[in-house]
Amino acid sequence: MVHFRLHSGVLLYTLVVLFPHLCLGIRSIPTRETNTGAVDVPNGFRFSEAPDYRNGRDCPVSTTKGRSVSSCDPSLVHIAMTLDSAYLRGSIAAVHSVLKHASCPESIFFHFVAAEFDPASPRVLTQLVRSTFPSLNFKVYIFREDTVINLISSSIRQALENPLNYARNYLGDMLDLCVDRVIYLDSDIVVVDDIHKLWNTALSGSRVIGAPEYCHANFTQYFTSVFWSDLDMSGTFSSARRKPCYFNTGVMVMDLVRWREGDYKRRIEKWMEIQKKTRIYELGSLPPFLLVFAGDVEAIDHRWNQHGLGGDNVRGSCRSLHPGPVSLLHWSGKGKPWVRLDAKKPCKLDHLWEPYDLYISNSKGYYYAHNDHQSMGFFTGSSYL
């Protein structure tokens, strides 16, 4: 038994698996109901339909008054995630966990970014999400690789080179201009608290993002000796105003108005261009964010990103929880809970992910091809279907 503190009322150990700018409406595509209650869609993806989570009495009243929910509705909580075949099982579990613990699940709007050339097309991914969560408010955007691919350098692990990892850089361009704030979540997380608490985080001053910070981390390990020996580059962190605290980009509250006004997409791209010419870091999409934002992040309670549960980027060994309460569990690192559970070699904490898994296995094998997926695609800015 693993001993830790979780938000009151959250029961994680349960043995029962519960069940840029053109934004078009997503239309339904007929799917075939099976006698098991699951929905079959092309390419062998099979998930149980999630329970229908509804708003409580104290939730805000939608301004749409029964019409289709618009992403411009001011009562909504906006969440952005990527969607691809390799991590789809994790994405579905993450969405399920958010809805299960939300006080106002009908007031959440998901923005999914799907790779253009994924083995499961954006069309298939869209209908799968709709069949698994019939009442979910969401849009799917196509992400093409041609704008970002030339900025990506090799990394310590191939999965970190996937262009889809850089989708968070372009949310300000992709999402409707009326969306002025969004929570970005990685696909290997589960939320065990009310997401509205994270949404209500205030970004003080002119801060653009909020995230849990770790100011005692050894910052030198994230950049090469070439970086630290260059006074101009290393001077980025020498300002008295900017203490270089580490933060994980898998959970962020983002002010998209300030992001657009400050052209932060371009600031990140400039560091990626330097990396292509002179290797200044080994990891993928994290270091450019640290270079632009470290020391100027709204510090959020650590309970909102208990990260590193996937182990390191090479071995993926088992990890334990950090001390303190937990609102979000994050399997960052090489090891993913669904892979280890299916291989019957789970870490203890992988069982905390399991209750949110809606995937139904079949005799044809698992739907994912491998853990370190191939490069996919960059956005066109259009919802799919």
UniProtKB/TrEMBL annotation:
One of its GO terms (cellular component) is Golgi apparatus. It comes from the Eukaryota. It is an enzyme of class 2 (transferase). Its main location: membrane. Keywords: Glycoprotein, Glycosyltransferase, Membrane, Signal, Signal-anchor, Transferase, Transmembrane, Transmembrane helix. Pathway: Glycan metabolism; pectin biosynthesis. Residues 1-25 form the signal peptide. It is found in: Endomembrane system. The keyword Protease does not apply. The keyword Transmembrane helix applies. It is a single-pass type II membrane protein. Its EC number is 2.4.1.-. InterPro entries: Glyco_trans_8 (IPR002495), Glycosyltrans_8_dom-fam (IPR050748). GO terms for molecular function: glycosyltransferase activity. Pfam families: Glyco_transf_8 (PF01501). Belongs to the glycosyltransferase 8 family. This is Hexosyltransferase.
